[in-house]
Amino acid sequence: MMQHQGMSWEREYRKPTLMTGDAKPQADVLRFLKFLKKERRCVVEGKRVLDLGSGTGRNSNYLASLGNDVIGIEISPTALHSAKQNNTGDMHVDYMLGDIGAPYALDTESIDIILDVTSSNSLNEKGREVYLQETSRVLKTGGYMFVRALCKDGNANVKNLLKIHPGKERDTYYLKEMDLFERVFSREDITHMYAPYFTILTLEKKTGYPRMAGRLYKRDYWIMYLQKRPTSADIH
Question: Residue 158 belongs to what H/E stretch?
Answer without folding.
Answer: helix 156-164
